Amino acid sequence: MSDWTELCPTDALPEGEARGFTIDGLRLCAVNDGTGIFVVADLCTHGQAYLSDGYFDAEECVLECPLHGGLFSYRDGSPQGDPAEKPVRTFPIRVEGGRVMVQL
Length: 104
Ligand code: FES
Fold this sequence. Notes:
Blueprint: E1 4-9, E2 17-23, E3 26-32, E4 37-41, E5 55-57, E6 62-64, E7 71-73, E8 79-81, E9 90-91, E10 93-96, E11 99-103
Antiparallel strand pairs: 1-11, 2-3, 3-4, 4-9, 5-6, 6-7, 7-8, 10-11
This protein binds FE2/S2 (inorganic) cluster.
The site of FE2/S2 (inorganic) cluster has 10 residues, from loops.
GO molecular function, one term: 2 iron, 2 sulfur cluster binding
Organism: Pararhodobacter aggregans
InterPro entries: Rieske_2Fe-2S, Rieske_2Fe-2S_sf
């Protein structure tokens, strides 16, 4: 398990937003749904698309891939709708001193 790395200041991820970040060459999608902040791998497991370019549904707790509409839970990374079959990786986060930290 590696060290904690700063993802962004907390005010860079307001409630209701999903944003893509690149940290150490790794593309991540961070979501703030109002109940918390969640981070998953940004690349869809079905094809070459960034989940942060798709749709974010806080009621269903999913990200929808912009290419074929596959759904992924941003809470546990699990696939939630075709054609998504494999989960996306999730990353632990913590908030400290006004910064969102992620464990890569
Ligand atoms: S590339 Fe994401 S569902 Fe196909």
